[in-house]
Amino acid sequence: KQDFINNDTREQLFNTIRELMALNIIPIINTNDAVSPPPQETVMEGTLNITDNDSLASRVAVDINADLAILMSDVDGIYDRPPKDDGAQLLHYFNPKNTNKIKFGDKSDFGTGGMESKVVSAGFALDHGCSVIICNGMKYNTIRNIMAGQNIGTMFSPLEIEETSVKVLAKNARSGSRKLSSLTPEDRADIIRHLAKSLLSNEKEIMEANVKDLNAAKARGVSGPMFDRLALSRSKLESLCTGLLQIADSSHDNVGKVVRRTKISDSLEVVQKTVP
Q1: What are the CA-CA distances from residue 11 to residues 8, 19, 61, 63 (Å)?
Q2: 34 φ, ψ to 5°?
Q3: Is residue 146 within 8 Å of 84, Cβ to Cβ?
Q4: Are the beta carbons of 136 and 125 closer than 8 angstroms?
Q5: The model scores a pTM over 0.90
Q6: How many Cβ atoms are within 10 Å of 154's Cβ, its own excluded?
Q7: What are the distances in angstroms from CA 179 to CA 172, 173, 190, 276?
Q8: How many helices and strands (H and E) does the chain possess?
Q9: 2-23 residues labelled b (16+ CB within 10 A) or e (exposed)
């Protein structure tokens, strides 16, 4: 830990790490957190106190200008509640600003840090330009799968991403479809009309969000017709509103309508109907 406090020794340490990596040698750095003395309460401003391997990994990742830090645990990532609780859902994206909105479970049996320590360490790395993923280190080929672009664990992001897993989205879509099917044609039409009117009543908020999207698109180099398609205007919102109202007016007959009826046998008939 003293090596990180002293500027000269820290520079020598990371020069050594860079030289090893240039030789295709992967250095293994470990803090003996089980036998180390209690961490000092005071720490230099803008730095992270090294109390366990999570904080050590984040400090190393930041100081060597790493693109990505992978912090491993014995669970798949960060959950919206303790992972052992019923209904706990894995968060594939997480903003450290929302730490107070989730409840952490017990510490891992394989270390002293726990998920809270990983979140603090990951937040430090993210603030210093290093991406972070917290994932399950007990699973096979985890690092290779992450580098292959698979959606593994929880990725830290400074953005407010309202993210839901594909499985949950599919489950919610099926549940919503069944609820829509049970509604009367009038109720379905009223829902669509409400959506149409909301486009115009929330025009200010929609246009402000669209400006942010356009700025982000410009930063990514999006231009031409693709950029034009992203741009919203009052006329576009009015056109969308008109289209939704037309759908509402015709929705009385377009759900539950028999499209095809096939007789398989005297006792079996297959009927194809339109659904939401």
Answers
A1: 5, 12, 14, 9
A2: -75, -25
A3: no
A4: no
A5: no
A6: 27
A7: 10, 10, 15, 9
A8: 10, 8
A9: eebeeeeeeeebbeebeeeeee
**Angle at which helices 53-63 and 7-22 pack, to 10 degrees?**
80
182, 148 Cβ separation under 8 angstroms = no
Q: Which amino acid is at 238?
A: E
61: tokens are 């990742």
Written as tens digits, the pLDDT of the chain (276 aa) is 566 777 788 888 888 888 888 888 888 888 765 555 555 554 555 677 888 888 889 988 888 888 889 999 888 998 888 888 887 888 888 888 877 777 776 655 554 557 888 888 998 988 888 889 999 999 999 999 888 888 889 988 776 655 555 566 677 777 777 777 778 888 888 988 999 999 999 999 999 999 998 998 888 888 788 788 888 999 999 999 999 999 888 877 777 778 888 888 888 888 887 776
Output DSSP code: residue 270.
Answer: E
Distances (CA, A) of 169 to 95, 156, 275: 20, 21, 18
The two structure tokens encoding residue 149: 């672009």
Q: Answer yes or no: are the C-beta atoms of 80 and 93 closer than 8 Å.
A: no
Quick one: DSSP state of residue 221? Answer: T
Which residue shows structure tokens 């009015």?
Answer: 238
**Secondary structure (3-state) at 66:** coil
Nearest CA-CA partner of 203 in 235, 171, 175, 243: 235
**Other beta carbons less than 10 A from residue 221's beta carbon:** 7
Residue with tokens 């594909």: 166
Contact predicate 55/48, CB 8 Å? yes
Q: How far apart are CA 184 and CA 189, in angstroms?
A: 9
Retrieve residue 240's tokens: 């969308």
Let me know the angle formed at the C-alpha of 91 by 86 and 93, rounded to the nearest 5 degrees.
175
